[in-house]
Amino acid sequence: MPEPLWRAALDWTHQQGQVELSASGAGESVQQVLPIADKAEGLEAMVKTLVDGPTQVLDSLSDIDAVGHRVVHGGREYIDSVRIDDQVKAAIQRLIPLAPAHNPANLQGIEAMEGILGDIPQVAVFDTAFHARMPEAAATYPGPYAWVEQGIRRYGFHGISHQYVAQRAADMVGRDLADLKLLTCHLGNGCSLAAVKGGLSVDTTMGFTPLEGLMMGSRSGSVDPGILIYLIRQEGYSADQLDTLLNKESGLKGLSGLSNDMRSVVEAMEQGNERARLAVDVFIHRLRREMGGMIASLGGLEAVVFTAGIGENSPLVWQRACEGFEFLGVRLKDELGRAKEDQDIAVADSRVRALVIHTQEEWAIAQACIGLL
Ligand code: ADP
User: Fold this and answer.
1) Which residues pair with 185 in a beta bridge?
2) Residue 251 Cα, ligand 1 centroid: separation in angstroms?
3) Do residue 240 and residue 147 come from a single domain?
4) Cβ distance 330 to 351 under 8 Å?
5) Which residues are the active-site residues?
6) Fewer CB atoms near the end CB (10 Å): N or C, the chain?
7) Is residue 373, in this structure, part of any structural domain at all?
């Protein structure tokens, strides 16, 4: 993957009306807190660092050929990347009920770029697309048949990342992706697994929403739906309260009572905090259990891949996750450490490779733009 010429980010977690802008390019980097009211204004300030100041890498914004966007939900209609037009924007809008936390921001980004860059080709790359060809049996929930007709099905997410790391894994082991069965583990704030067979996602742990499957930073992952019925009946919970409870107050944060950040929770565990230990134990238990499910859907396994914040950086998670699969021939090296480069952490004669791959969603989106335009 080529090094990016420039990259920039906006951190909106400062106090109301303030945004931290960081940008790097031309061997320089800048960081500043700006008074910024809305997304469009923030994006404009960010884009300006391409043509202005120490991080300048372009003479003019008209040098930009295209803008690619990660759009979380493409529904049943959009199963490949697509050039954005009014119809595509209307579809992203229509799909907001399926991704209320993400699709509105994606749409804002697209419209802000129109405002900043004018009539430039823009491409939507959908996080659901990689999973869209999953077998019906994996995609269908065993509720009433009406759900099938209503589009209540497994969509799956993190597709751009799962697809990128699967291809990269094939390159690393020097084999054709079409011949491989891969288990890809995207473990960040949001966590999901995918079963990638012959280059296609045949199963994944996230479902109708990004709430299903693994335990996450502040999301519960799968729980007995009967718990929700119980909370509604006995405690009078509303839909909004359940949404907050399951998405923001559960997972590592909920169980540990400390943080949604794996680093802090592990640190507390090492200092003897019992709730932190429980949180990590449950995280690992659920991870292994779901890994087992994905391996069953694959019917074999050439490599397990770890990616995203936790997956790229936590030897403890690699070790404890893989311990469950020694019987399948997954054997890790004794000395495990983080590295800047992608690495194979399995011993030379391990029957299954174990790869740590830095996900490159931006590069995957750029490639989708190149492919389409
Ligand atoms: P997002 O899903 O928001 O893109 P990231 O992929 O950046 O998130 O992952 C964030 C998670 O990665 C956090 O839980 C953080 O604790 C974890 N993480 C980052 N560095 C480390 C590390 N060195 N060891 C363990 N966990 C880490």
Assistant:
1) 193, 306
2) 14
3) no
4) yes
5) 127
6) C
7) no
